[in-house]
Design a protein that fits this description.
33% of the residues lie in helices and 21% in strands. By secondary structure, it is of the alpha/beta class. Strands 3-2-1-11-12-9 form a 6-stranded mixed sheet. The chain binds zinc ion (ZN).
């Protein structure tokens, strides 16, 4: 099975469309989304529609949940909080119902998906180091787990001896003796210094994961954010990938 996996679209329609277009060339069998479809940019409704049309499944992110009051936006920074209130006004009942339908964890024979961490997924903690990774590895029932949330593509690998290592490799050959947590980065608001939209292809037959980047029209996405009355900072950061 060839999976197209992406996360953290954050209402950035320009980035999402570029990713979907790039993914078509990869002829995936299934599209999976790891949450945070909305929040930050100016096209929440359109992004929900696009994700619904293409992805067979999405799990919930903290911004998805905050928009429909399933989690509090209290700990969000002011710009993020402002974007959540803006997004709430913009969504229709169908959009809200879709966000309500998202589960926190998805698992099949090939993979597990969760937005933040497998331990207390409803708290949306960040997978920042080997310590957080160990807690997710302890709960992981498949060889590979895909995550998002930090907006920084990354790979944690646990070998047979239990040792956990970190890398930022974009091409990963899966060794069945090891377990993996792979952060697929962000479609709509990359934060690793590279403004290009990020996504991932996982081929469970070939045992390979490829993290890919695609250029998109971030200038238009930025301008729409500003025209919508959202914080200018949310537009400007797209240009820097920060
Ligand atoms: Zn996010």
């Amino acid at each position: 099975m060839r999976y197209a996996i992406f996360s953290d679209v954050h209402s950035n329609l320009e980035a999402l469309r570029a990713v979907i277009e790039a993914l078509k060339a990869e002829s995936p069998d299934r599209y999976l989304c790891i949450g945070d479809i909305v929040g930050y940019a100016a096209n929440p409704r359109e992004c929900i529609e696009e994700v619904k049309a293409v992805a067979s499944l999405s799990v919930a992110g903290n911004h998805d949940w905050a928009t429909i009051d399933l989690t509090s936006a209290e700990n969000f920074n002011p710009a993020a909080r402002q974007a959540i209130s803006w997004t709430r006004r913009y969504l229709d009942a169908d959009n809200r119902q879709f966000l309500e339908s998202l589960q926190l964890i998805y698992k099949n024979d090939d993979l597990t998906l969760v937005h933040g961490t497998l331990d207390n997924p409803q708290d949306f903690n960040y997978m920042l180091d080997e310590y957080n990774a160990a807690r997710t590895f302890n709960l992981l029932e498949t060889g590979i787990c895909f995550i998002g949330h930090t907006h920084i593509p990354a790979v944690f690998m646990k070998d047979k001896s239990g040792e956990i290592s970190y890398s930022e490799d974009a091409v990963i050959n899966i060794n069945e003796n090891n377990s993996y947590i792979i952060n697929v980065g962000s479609v709509g608001q990359p934060r690793d210094g590279n403004p290009d939209a990020c996504f991932c292809i996982y081929d469970s037959g070939l045992k390979s994961v490829n993290i890919k980047r695609i250029k998109y029209d971030f200038q238009s996405a930025r301008n729409k954010i500003i025209e919508a009355g959202l914080p200018k900072y949310l537009g400007d950061r797209l240009l820097a990938g920060r």
